[in-house]
Design goal:
heterodimer; A: mainly alpha; MetI-like fold; two-stranded antiparallel sheet; 15 helices; globular; B: mainly alpha; 0% strand
């Protein structure tokens, strides 16, 4: 038994070291960096909030917060709503839906650089097929530049985000819906409940747990998503689609404002930590049962 | 049920299904079509749906040095780098993930559940917030602008999830099989290698596929770490078209097709392994 214990620590050592070095270490490092005064790329003294005051003094900061709220809250809400609709459709028994269940994961596995390029092409301001179709069918008077219009760009990005993230939400909810006991649905049907009533009062309460869990997980995914907005707009035009992730990248590697970038990174990490805490809280029962095995 | 409502039901179902299939496939298909069009065709209005005279020029340009105008990156090189990074880190992740997964599933030691939980939670802290400190770390280690550095980084990112998938599947394998092998005189490591691992192969394939897809697709960390053109990966190559070309989407289409192809192959041929890891993947994000 003593041998087994040593063997176990030896076996998990590489994983623990890798995570300490490349995940925990950098997390700690960005925390200390955010509290360090940085002048011209040189570290000048620890123990200051000047990076955070400089960050909040930047007028772009408040715009970034607003855009990030649209990105995370709007994105999560739409992702779950559309995912629920598609998931409900996929849960129907038919050869068609079985095929679709296999196909629908495609946007989820494709590299986000490919997704960004595909949508950038469809949304192109002059020859994009979406803008052109809307114009030739007479729905709009002129070709809309979805990514060039400061009022539209943020919501356009959310639409692309839904395309990418919704499939897994739909599949998880589809699995949950299919595990709802048939006799409950049948009983409601006998009592004269319409299809909508059966969905609202039988299916939804049964999948409530999956629905909450998948909502919180979507928030984590969306908070972490970077390549999609960065490649599609780079935060533009004029910061109108700048979110935390793109702002951190720009401040770090284009403007070299490491103080501001690390302060924003810490705010981003605190936000992620709250969502992760929420996720762990929702899952507390399954963690407990995992531990008892 | 009589015939008429059933027909309507079937038609309604098919229409919704068709709309969803179109929604999923069209963006990719449209960019794929662009790769066969000429530049003038891409710029003309009204938009032509099918290529007027399909051409492979864009692909030829990406692959032949004579067509490279100093703007195009060396695509054979990019593809080689991406395969090197994705395959090497997949091997590391599956090897060390199996060792750790076995320990978490089979051995008793103080702090076991806490360490496994900690590993998984640590991976939820991902994304842009770690870009700057990771850049600083890799520069200090002298691993910036190196594909080896990228292999180490991706392995560290992928290990917690792989460990967890492998540990969960090892828990389902009956202990008795292993115990009887050990009664017959096999050591613990021998019984692990000869008895347990063959049964866990599907989980190892699942872990390998998810990691390969993630490593092949990664963009953010590759873009801040790799500086010289000979070290870059395919996602960086594809993203570089944002600055270089405005309307030359035939190159973007060809490059995107090349980037997407290995992922599509893994996806279609490994479908059942993918769905195995599906719910597990929900945790990974």
């Amino acid at each position: 038994m003593q041998n087994d214990r040593l063997l176990a620590y030896f076996m998990i050592l590489p994983v623990v070291i890798a995570v300490l070095a490349f995940v925990i270490g950098p997390t700690y490092n960005v925390g200390t960096l955010s509290l360090t005064k940085i002048v011209m790329g040189q570290e000048r003294g620890f123990g200051t909030f000047s990076n955070f005051t400089a960050l909040t003094a930047d007028p772009v900061f408040w715009l970034v917060l607003k855009n990030t709220a649209i990105w995370i809250l709007g994105g999560t809400l739409l992702c779950v709503l559309v995912g629920l609709g598609v998931g409900a459709f996929l849960s129907v028994d038919s050869r068609l839906t079985t095929g679709l269940r296999a196909l629908i994961l495609l946007p989820w596995v494709l590299p986000d650089v490919v997704t960004a390029m595909a949508w950038k092409w469809m949304l192109h301001g002059q020859v994009g097929i979406i803008g052109q179709t809307l114009e030739t069918t007479g729905l709009t008077e002129e070709t809309i530049s979805f990514l060039g219009d400061p009022n539209l760009v943020m919501w356009t990005l959310v639409v692309v985000l839904i395309w990418r993230k919704m499939p897994l939400v739909a599949l998880i909810l589809c699995a949950a819906i299919r595990s709802v006991p048939d006799d409950q649905i049948e009983a409601a049907r006998m009592d004269g409940a319409t299809a909508f009533e059966r969905f609202r009062f039988v299916v939804i309460p049964n999948i409530a747990f999956s629905l909450t869990a998948v909502t919180v997980i979507s928030m984590i995914w969306i908070t972490a998503e970077f390549a999609l907005p960065w490649i599609m707009t780079g935060g533009g035009p004029a910061n109108s689609s700048q979110i935390m992730a793109t702002y951190i990248y720009q401040q770090s590697f284009e403007f070299f404002n490491w103080g501001i970038a690390s302060a924003m990174s810490v705010i981003n990490l605190v936000m992620l930590a709250s969502i992760v805490a929420l996720y762990l809280y929702i899952n507390r029962r399954s963690w407990a049962s995992e531990g008892s095995k | 049920m009589n015939e008429t409502p059933r027909t309507f039901y079937w038609i309604g179902l098919s229409i919704i299904g068709l709309v969803i299939a179109l929604y999923i496939l069209f963006p990719i298909f449209w960019l794929f079509l662009a790769s066969f069009k000429t530049q003038s065709e891409l710029a003309q209005l009204p938009i032509s749906f099918w290529p007027e005279s399909a051409t492979l020029d864009a692909y030829k340009a990406l692959f032949s040095p004579t067509h490279q105008k100093g703007q195009l990156l060396d695509w054979p090189r990019l593809i080689g780098n991406s395969f090197f990074v994705a395959i090497s880190s997949t091997i590391l992740v599956v090897f060390f993930g199996t060792l750790a997964g076995y320990a978490f599933a089979r051995l008793h030691f103080p702090g076991r559940d806490l360490i496994l939980g900690g590993l998984l939670v640590s991976r939820m802290f991902q994304g842009a917030a770690l870009l700057l400190p990771t850049y600083r770390l890799m520069t200090t280690l002298g691993l910036q602008d190196s594909t080896i550095g990228l292999v180490l980084l991706y392995s560290a990112f992928g290990l917690p999830f792989a460990t967890w998938i492998i540990a969960s599947s090892l828990r389902e394998i009956p202990r008795e099989l292993e115990e009887s092998a050990m009664m017959d005189g096999a050591s613990r490591l021998q019984s692990m290698a000869m008895v347990v691992l063959p049964l866990a192969t599907p989980a190892l394939i699942t872990a390998a596929m998810w990691h390969f897809v993630g490593a092949w697709s990664e963009f953010a960390f590759a873009s801040i770490l790799l500086e010289s053109n000979e070290n870059k990966t395919v996602t960086i190559g594809l993203a570089s078209f944002v600055e270089l070309f405005t309307l030359e989407f035939q190159f973007v289409g060809a490059a995107a097709t090349i980037v997407a192809l290995p992922i599509m192959l893994v996806f279609f041929f490994g479908q059942r392994y993918f769905t195995r890891g599906l719910l597990a993947g929900a945790v990974k994000g």
